[in-house]
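Q: Given only this backbone (345 positions), what sequence would you predict?
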């Protein structure tokens, strides 16, 4: 782990290997295949001529020549024939065979196009789902980073019902938040702040002797010294996370891989009790631990964050957690579709 969806030109990716959605001859063509051959130069075509072609669902490896990566892995995706001719199994095989070649050749990073989703006609939402699930399964047992490279917004699509459901959920929350007048928002924020202060520093109760006014509140320093304040600090994010992992009966590796988090980043969190994670990292762990919404918000507070209905990213993640959907790859597909940051990484 992790797996990321990025919008880029695959020929510009500085990774160990890029995957070419090739034709059976491996001799170049249109789309991604043609772009990779043009960027690599004639040396790539010369080497491909020696390979004897490639069967659908299989993969072969060459040098990268003028590309900024080390290798090009060529795989032949299935032509869409309605979904009844083994297309999904063949597409899964493309990703698995490519990843095995990358792993066997010492690659730590690999970038894929959305195989078969162009001229071969594979429905884009199904092509993406197959890519994410197949690559995700492989990475559970292999420490690699994989990228699904989308060239432009038109080349990307999630399921229409999911898109509509998320859009409706955003509309119910995000629009109302932004229709509120700025002065009303300011008053609400001030009231929330004052409420928090009242909880932290309560005023003394009424004087028990009738007729005698309550004394003025003591200065802040007298209410709570620095030493007292520090002694009341809540459990930090790192300690809370490790406790939750144990309570869920998970291993560290199971948790950070399910969270789409790199092993090196998790190591930093584990070794540093005061580590300050990013908001997407906290939410990635909340999803991996399958925390309900209230426990997710509590974990966010440990890192100094909160969910907000003025933020589409927050609302989309809230939508999935509220509906009990804890597949981080599905969540990231949706976040990418709405042009938001991804979880984990």
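A: Predicted residues:
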């Amino acid at each position: 782990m992790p797996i990321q969806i990025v919008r880029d030109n695959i020929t510009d990716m500085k990774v160990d290997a890029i995957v070419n959605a090739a034709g059976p001859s491996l001799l170049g063509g249109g789309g991604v295949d043609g772009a990779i051959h043009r960027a690599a130069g004639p040396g790539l075509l010369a080497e491909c001529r020696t390979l004897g072609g490639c069967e659908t669902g299989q993969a072969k490896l060459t040098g990268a020549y003028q590309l900024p990566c080390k290798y090009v892995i060529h795989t032949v995706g299935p032509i869409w024939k309605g979904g009844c001719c083994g297309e999904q199994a063949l597409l899964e095989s493309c990703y698995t065979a490519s990843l095995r070649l990358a792993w066997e050749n010492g690659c730590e990073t690999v970038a894929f196009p959305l195989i078969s989703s162009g001229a071969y006609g594979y429905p884009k939402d199904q092509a993406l789902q197959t890519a994410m699930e197949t690559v995700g399964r492989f990475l559970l047992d292999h420490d690699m980073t994989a990228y699904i490279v989308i060239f432009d917004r038109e080349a990307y699509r999630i399921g229409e019902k999911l898109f509509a459901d998320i859009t409706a959920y955003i509309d119910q929350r995000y629009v109302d938040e932004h229709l509120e007048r700025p002065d009303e928002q300011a008053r609400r924020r001030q009231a929330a702040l004052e409420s928090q202060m009242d909880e932290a520093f309560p005023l003394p109760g009424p004087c028990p002797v009738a007729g005698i006014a309550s004394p003025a509140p003591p200065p802040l320093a007298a209410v709570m010294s620095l030493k007292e304040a520090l002694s009341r600090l809540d459990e930090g994010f790192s300690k809370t996370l490790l406790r939750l992992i144990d309570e869920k009966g998970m291993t560290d590796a199971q948790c950070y891989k399910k969270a789409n988090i790199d092993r090196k980043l998790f190591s930093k969190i584990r070794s540093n009790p005061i580590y300050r994670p990013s908001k997407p990292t906290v939410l990635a762990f909340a999803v991996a631990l399958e925390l309900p919404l209230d426990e997710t918000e509590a974990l966010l507070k440990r890192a100094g964050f909160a969910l907000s209905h003025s933020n589409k990213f927050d609302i989309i993640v809230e939508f999935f957690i509220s509906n009990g959907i804890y597949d981080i790859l599905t969540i990231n597909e949706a976040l990418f579709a709405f042009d938001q940051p991804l979880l984990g990484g």
